Structures are given as structure tokens and as C-alpha cells.
Amino acid sequence: MNVQSDLSMKTDDVLRVELEVFRREHRDLDEAITALTERGTADQLTLKRLKKQKLRLKDMIAVIEDRLTPDIIA
User: What is the pTM of this model?
Assistant: First the structure.
């Protein structure tokens, strides 16, 4: 099942909750990446995996925000 059809089955309230969860996870990943980089304790594979996960979350956040934002006809 793709993301768009999965989102169409959810209510706006559920999407808002998921949006906050994804934003929090994105922020946590950003802090983890920064901490690992500053300490120099992470290998490149771990950093690459965390950054990829962060990008996936960013994409999900954008999809949900688009779904929740009403279309404005100019």
C-alpha cells in the first residue's frame, strides 16, 4: 500500500498526531547525528543510516502537511 492511499484513510486528527510524532523523531535524529558527529564516535555507515531515516521522516512530514493544508484557489 502506498503512502497516499494510506493517508487518505486517516482522519485529520490522526494525521496531526502523526505529524507531531514524526517532527519529534526528526528532531531527535538531528540531535543524535549532531552529537555523534561532535564526539567523533560514530562510523560513517551509522551516520549515513541515521541521515537516510531523517530524510524519510522529512518526506513523510511534507506529505502529511500537504494533506492537511487546504487548497487555495488564487
Answer: 0.80
Asked if 64 contacts 19 with a C-beta cutoff of 8 angstroms, the reply is yes
Q: What is the tens place of the pLDDT at every residue in 54-70?
A: 999 999 999 999 999 87
Q: What's CA 39's distance to the chain center, in Å?
A: 25
CA angle 46, 35, 30 (to 5 degrees): 75
Please answer whether residues 50 and 33 qualify as being in contact, where contact means their C-beta atoms are separated by less than 8 angstroms.
yes
CA 43 → CA 5, 33, 53, distances in Å?
A: 37, 11, 16
Query: For residues 19 and 47, is the Cβ–Cβ distance under 8 A?
Result: no
